[in-house]
Amino acid sequence: NFSCDGKWLLTSSDDKTAKVWNTADRKFVFSLSGYSNWVRTCQFSPDVRLIATGSDDKSVKLWDVEHKQEIHSFTDHTGMVNSVKFHPDGTCVASCSRDKKIKIWDIRSKRLLQHYDAHSDNINQISFHPSGNYLISASDDARLKIWDLRQGRLAFTLYGHEGGCTASTFSAG
Question: In 3D, which of 173, 171, 140, 170 has the Cα closest to residue 155?
Answer without folding.
Answer: 170
